[in-house]
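ok trying this again, last paste got cut off
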Amino acid sequence: MMKHVMRSCLLLVMLVCIVTGMGNAQVTSATVTGVISDHTGAVIGGTSVSLTNSNTGVVSKSTTNAQGVYRISGLIPGPYQESVAKNGFKSISKDQIALHAADIVELNFVLEVGSATETVTVTAGEPLIDTQSSSIGTVVEGRQIEEAPINGRNTMTLIGLTPGVVPGGSSQGDATATMTLPAQNVSLSKLF
């Protein structure tokens, strides 16, 4: 009897640890970081950097450190505009920055000498790539969920919408459903 109680308690503790670990792994905000320099490559400390959420108008601000590095965390996913300004240099503005949950995006800027009243607007550039993390993720839009042929309302099939995921197992009443990322040798399973 005592063994049964101890096993039950141990199983409960392990289950709680697993569930709380899964909850902590889910990040819902994004981060933007980068380095501000001049045309010679010298970093510029004390530069004002602001990100404005185009949907809400909320402004998040930062100032570069002595190494010219800035970091703005806790950003709600959505479209943003970034502005960079420093006395003695032309201001820079970049529109159409799309941030998703768990993104860590590096945006570096090169300031040109000039009046702060002059503004350089960047309308295109390289795609946003997460250079700070090796995590794999995708954003599944509501339209994709509505149009996906989810058989039996098994949410594990949504993982199959991620590029590179190979579905395996069964979602037809078996004990488990499995999705495998072969290149990374990672397997995701859900017990029902």
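PB: full thing came through this time. The longest strand covers residues 30-38.
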